[in-house]
UniProtKB/TrEMBL annotation:
Class of this enzyme: oxidoreductase
Gene3D superfamilies noted in UniProt: Naphthalene 1,2-dioxygenase Alpha Subunit, Chain A, domain 1, Rieske [2Fe-2S] iron-sulphur domain
Domain of life where this protein originates: Bacteria
Alphabetized UniProt keyword annotations: 2Fe-2S, Dioxygenase, Iron, Iron-sulfur, Metal-binding, Oxidoreductase
UniProt xrefs under InterPro entries: Cholesterol_7-desaturase, Rieske_2Fe-2S, Rieske_2Fe-2S_sf, VanA_C_cat
Keyword DNA-binding part of the UniProt annotation: no
Annotated organism of origin: Pannonibacter anstelovis
GO molecular function terms listed in the Swiss-Prot or TrEMBL record: dioxygenase activity
Domain Rieske, first and last residues per copy: 14-119
Protein name: Aromatic ring-hydroxylating dioxygenase subunit alpha
Ranges that cross the membrane: none
Record-listed E.C. numbers: 1.14.13.-
Length: 352
């Protein structure tokens, strides 16, 4: 955490992008987890993910063409199917005996669910079924085919660790999120106390009631409650539920490299009338996330000098949990044993 760069955890599913960004017959290249990844959707609508490097001369395959079934390299015309297996080398002649099936550019397990494309980055060549996270997490109250009502993404020039610590920091809002509409004032901090318990690959702020005087919550009905979960490899899931409607907010942090991160914020809502308000809500989301982005860029100026950082009890306990989870995940992978969640339930108190 003290460094500009972070260890990247493998053996886990990461959000690559919303499914709506990959059209049938189209493909796009991205750098994720330090790897070159080519995402595409075949003519039948199925998503695939390949290593975006041609094994012949190393040129990225994204510069080539995709006919809905095979990807053709722009350099020498080699073709690969959507499993990454070579199916044609135009320069071969009739006397050559090359088994195309033994040539591959490499492929990643990929799943499309709830409107998101998830890519599995193996630790040691294992399939997801052989690993400890066989499937990406499902969000509550919404079907596998239901995508987010709203989505934004911003590129953070910081490691996944510093993006994650900002994501779970309960005390920075009054100083960073100072927009008039958020109604934060550093001079009027109030005491907070919340119960936390371990959950799958992380921890959860135990479900609790939300203030009934907030008009936004009243739209969801009576007895509105929320639960917030944090889990590896960098997910924040907030489930707000009332007697009439529910809303799920998902924030994902996907490493581009050891010191760059894509941060996405998405919302699913059971109310069908939010359509006309999407441009305004999207703008406010971008302002809010942009404030977090600005402060980590400013933070980087100091981190260049490799200072020893401090974490204090309660306010920064979740940051400590994050680092403990990462260390345990890495240790369990190295030792070939089951992951043991190091988080223990307790009450945290802070001013915010």
């Amino acid at each position: 955490m003290d460094n500009l760069k972070a260890e990247l955890l493998r053996g886990l599913w990461y959000v690559a992008c919303p499914g709506a960004e990959i059209k049938p017959g189209a493909m796009t290249g991205k750098k994720l987890m330090g790897d070159m990844v080519l995402l595409g959707r075949d003519k039948a609508g199925k998503v695939f993910a390949l290593r975006d490097i041609c094994p012949h001369r190393g040129i990225p395959l994204r510069h080539g063409k995709f006919d809905g079934e095979t990807v053709q390299c722009c350099y020498h015309g080699w073709r690969f199917d959507t499993a990454g297996v070579c199916v044609d080398i135009p320069s071969t002649h009739e006397d050559q005996t090359i088994d195309f099936s033994k040539i591959t550019c490499g492929a990643y397990p990929v799943v499309e669910q709830q409107g998101l494309i998830w890519v599995y980055f193996a630790a040691n060549g294992e399939s997801p079924e052989e690993g400890r996270q066989p499937q990406p997490p499902m969000l509550p109250d919404f079907s596998v085919d239901q995508g987010p009502a709203l989505h934004i993404m911003q590129h953070f020039v910081c490691s996944v660790d510093h993006a994650a610590l900002g994501l779970m920091d309960p005390t920075h809002a009054a100083f960073v999120h100072t927009s008039w509409w958020f109604k934060k004032n550093a001079a009027k901090l109030r005491p907070k106390r919340k119960l936390f318990e371990p959950s799958e690959l992380g921890w959860a702020m135990v479900r609790h009631k939300l203030p009934p005087q907030n008009i936004a919550y009243k739209l969801l009905g009576d007895d509105v409650t929320t639960e917030i979960r944090y889990m590896l490899p960098g997910l924040r899931i907030e489930h707000i539920k009332g007697s009439k409607h529910s809303v799920v907010g998902l924030t994902t942090i996907t490493p581009v490299s050891e010191d760059e991160t894509e941060v996405r914020q998405m919302f699913w809502a059971s109310m069908g009338w939010i359509g006309p308000f999407k441009p305004l809500i999207r703008h406010l989301m971008n302002v809010f996330l942009g404030q977090d982005r600005r402060v980590v860029i400013q933070q980087r100026e100091g981190l260049e000098y490799n200072p020893k950082l401090m974490l204090i009890n309660d306010a920064d306990t979740q940051g400590r949990w994050w680092m403990q989870l990462k260390r345990e995940w890495s240790a369990s992978q190295a030792e070939g044993r089951e992951f043991v969640n190091p988080v223990r339930g307790r009450e945290l108190r802070w001013m915010s």
